[in-house]
Amino acid sequence: MPRARRAQGSGRARPDESGFSTVEYTLMVSLSFLVLVWGANLILWSYGKGVVHSAVDQAARAGSRVDVDSAAVCEARAQEVLANILSGSMGRGVQISCSEADGVVRALAQVTFAAWLPPLTDSVFEATGQAIKERAP
To answer: Is the pLDDT of residue 94 over 60?
Structure first.
């Protein structure tokens, strides 16, 4: 039988409600943490996209210099940028390839960033950087 206590200012007894808000509080805190994690995941993906775009741009510029093996220099520079700025699990989701055709050096990144929690899905995209190959005078 539930314990009854007297309401202040009233002569009648009411059921004990102590601890009732604990369940609501726990649910709201849990939901707030989920939203926080999803938001952090989206912010991190945005940062990662910026890094990948920077890496392909720098790689294409490095490969466009005179008298260099364009594809090799381009890929080396892209890996260097990624290793310095986006290492770890996010960096492992980035594959960069470089090519030179018709006087243009192109760096292509195929990227998959994993989602931390459902219902977010993995972020999959491509980024391209290009630069015109320099010629000796």
So the answer is: yes
Q: Tell me the whole-structure pTM to 2 decimals.
A: 0.78
Token pair in block for residue 15: 């059921």
Domain count, the chain: 1
When the pLDDT of each residue in the chain is averaged and rounded to a whole number, the result is 88
Q: Which of 58, 45, 61, 59 is nearest to 125 (CA)?
A: 45
Which CATH number covers residue 37?
A: 3.30.1300
Reduced to 3 states (helix: H, G, I; strand: E, B; else coil), residue 74 is helix
Q: How far apart are CA 64 and CA 105, in angstroms?
A: 6
Beta bridge partners of residue 128, listed in sequence order:
108
- Domain assignment present for residue 10? The answer is no
Residues 27-53 pLDDT 10s: 999 999 999 999 999 999 999 999 999
**CA dist 101 → 77, 96, 122 (Å):** 19, 17, 32
In a domain, 11, yes or no: no
Tell me which H or E stretch contains 60: helix 20-63
At residue 95, the pLDDT reads 96
Domain holding 37, by residue range, is 20-132
> d(Cα 88, Cα 96) in Å, to the nearest integer?
16
